[in-house]
Specification:
With 295 residues, the chain is α+β, with helices and mostly antiparallel strands. It is built from ten helices and ten strands. The chain has helices at residues 12-20, 22-30, 40-60, 65-85, 97-110, 167-173, 175-188, 228-251, 271-274, 281-287; strands spanning 6-10, 33-35, 117-132, 135-148, 156-163, 196-207, 214-225, 262-263, 266-267, 288-290. Strands 1, 3, 4, 5, 6 and 7 form a six-stranded mixed beta sheet that branches. Strands 2-10 form a two-stranded antiparallel sheet. Strand 3 (117-132) and strand 4 form a beta hairpin. The longest helix has 24 residues, at 228-251. The two termini are 25 Å apart.
């Protein structure tokens, strides 16, 4: 391979962000800017993922349940603390570490007779995907779990997710990601075929009137079954998006999508920056930290 080729690393988060708004992609993944005010929802989600990851790894290793839980708690605390150590500030709300711990234990109890049987946990991948003039694109990511249910021997891709929104919004959002993960599983592991996936959702939200609110955790699973044509269509879509991202990098041109400035989650974190004709570096230093994205 030409040693002068530039490697462009893409994952589902970057792909989705560019599709939503190339300018947001620029601030987040080219300039590596993260808002000084961190997202408690993302922090809660990262910590919950750490609980699940470590528990499953210890379970595969043959550890007893109590050790699995203890080891998972230590790993989750590391992740929770690291979010602060990187320099971001977080508001205190119901999405605390203790609530995350309680939600994880509630999950174990809820699925004590029907949890997934793990085959591969936190499966990290980096696959050469396509090439353009002077660029090699690698598709990278991490699959939470490849496993199966006790009453279904067929392997599935499982994506853990936490949310405070309705299950409809959650289940409608993740299909492209899951098709991509099925493609990866089949690309790397020809000894088995994966054409189904699950979103493994922990829905955590506050309910009740002001002054008497309580936190409610619900657990839902949505199965997806994909044909070979579905996964082939995903591959074609991904090639097209790779070309668009490559051209943006080549020309150093990342235009805004104004319809994305406001979403159901609120205003874009970079809205003020985009409104500046010449972004002020002092403003950036006062409101953002620089941190590279890690899959």
């Amino acid at each position: 391979r030409d040693k002068d080729m530039i490697t462009l690393k893409l994952d589902n988060t970057k792909r989705s962000c560019f599709s939503q708004c190339p300018k947001k992609y620029y601030w987040q993944f080219v300039r590596h800017l993260k808002p000084l005010k961190g997202s408690t929802a993302l922090r809660f989600g990262s910590t919950y993922h750490a609980f699940q990851e470590e528990y499953r790894k210890q379970k595969i290793a043959g550890a007893d349940i109590q050790y699995c839980k203890a080891s998972a708690s230590l790993k989750a605390m590391e992740v929770w603390t690291a979010e602060v150590e990187c320099g971001q500030l977080f508001e205190h709300d119901y999405r605390s570490f203790l609530q995350c711990l309680e939600t994880f234990h509630q999950y174990l109890e809820f699925y004590k007779d029907g949890d997934f049987i793990p085959k591969m946990v936190e499966h990290v991948f980096s696959i050469p995907f396509c090439e353009f003039s002077g660029y090699q694109v690698k598709f990278e990511g991490k699959i939470d779990l490849i496993g199966h249910l006790s009453d279904d021997p067929h392997l599935s891709v499982i994506d853990d997710k936490t949310s405070g929104y309705t299950t409809y919004h959650v289940f409608a959002e993740k299909r492209a990601q899951l098709m991509g993960y099925c493609w990866v599983a089949n690309k790397l592991h020809t000894e088995f075929k994966v054409n189904q996936a699950y979103i493994n959702l922990a829905l955590v939200k506050e309910a009740g009137k002001k002054g008497s609110k309580q936190v409610i955790s619900e657990f839902h699973r949505m199965p997806y079954l994909y044909s070979d044509k579905d996964i082939e269509d995903w591959h074609t879509m991904m090639l097209g998006e790779c070309e668009q991202i490559y051209k943006a990098h080549l020309r150093n041109t990342f235009y805004p999508i104004f319809e994305s400035c406001q979403t159901k989650y609120g205003a874009c974190d970079y809205l003020t920056l985009c409104g500046m004709s010449n972004p002020d570096e002092d403003y950036i230093k006062a409101n953002f930290i620089e941190k590279k994205w890690e899959v």
